[in-house]
Amino acid sequence: MAKLLGTPVVLVPSPTGRPQVAAEVLGYQQFDPDLNVAGVILNGVGSPAHLEFCKPQIEATTGLPVLGYLPRRTDFEQPERHLGLIPTVEGTVANQWYESIITQVEETIDVGRIAELARLSAAPSSARAEGMQVYPQQPQPKRAVIAVAQDKAFNFYYQDSLDCWRPGAPK
Question: Taking every annotated instance into account, which residue ranges of this chain make up the domain CobQ/CobB/MinD/ParA nucleotide binding (predicted)?
């Protein structure tokens, strides 16, 4: 989507147990030169020394600024979930959890610089998207019958996926 809109991307790699995180960032940066990789936020930094080990390597190797970091904190972790999401049938995350993450972001990530990178980028252009089809037209097969289970065991669905099955789709 960022390539389609021409917007900047901030990579968020985890340096935990990976001493060559700079090589990973460089790989992402060089994989698609048309993608505007604008900076890096490190996720799961173990200590100030760990940050001081990774940050200069990334900046020297890639020329990208390290815009901040999130420390490795067990209170930020959520129980293992499909895609890290909590289904609505299991409740919600406590506001205190969000507040602690917001406080940490304000302390260790240069949010102002991220906003500045966004402001400096060109406004998204529809001309860039001309001729590109995000979802190319497909021939419509005969309608199939599909059942969708929805209970405590089966409840995580993307609404867009369910909506695709409505008019003119399977019954």
Answer: 23-83
